């Protein structure tokens, strides 16, 4: 789904994880429709204060892998994943290789979760009409204000055009 708040939700989970000290390190990297492995590796390396000694993707992956192995509890958020991603090619240890490394990915495509063997899937759906109207009223400042019926009619049409997408309703 577009605009249901996947990225916002992932960032908030990362922020809360840091505040609650659930992990020693929280890393967020945007993957996008055309993933650039070197950029993803660079983002992870920046979070680790890691300077690459190798230039190839494989060499960089090995350096990231080793550095992440030194950390006890790591939370890696991969945002906007469009197709199956080889975590080992990036340098992200997972499964039996590092039980303290947790990976959260956001995607709009269910099959990505399946192909990457996600353990838990959380579906974010659009809001119901009532929820959408409540969010729109709140963001438009119409909660407590006495409004004319014409204004309410227009506001409800605008909220309807947002199709229950939280981001559109908030904007």
Automatic annotation (TrEMBL):
- Which Pfam families does the protein's record reference? NB-ARC
Task: List the molecular function annotations (GO) for this entry.
Answer: ADP binding; ATP binding
Q: Which residues form a coiled coil?
A: none
**Domain NB-ARC: start-end pairs:** 3-140
Any stretches that span the bilayer, and where are they?
none
The record's annotation in InterPro entries points to:
Apaf_helical (IPR042197), NB-ARC (IPR002182), P-loop_NTPase (IPR027417), Plant_NBS-LRR (IPR050905)
Task: For this UniProt record, give its keywords in alphabetical order, as a comma-separated list.
Answer: ATP-binding, Nucleotide-binding, Plant defense
Biological process GO terms, please?
A: defense response
Taxonomy, superkingdom = Eukaryota
Name it: NBS/LRR resistance protein-like protein
Organism annotation: Theobroma cacao (Cacao)
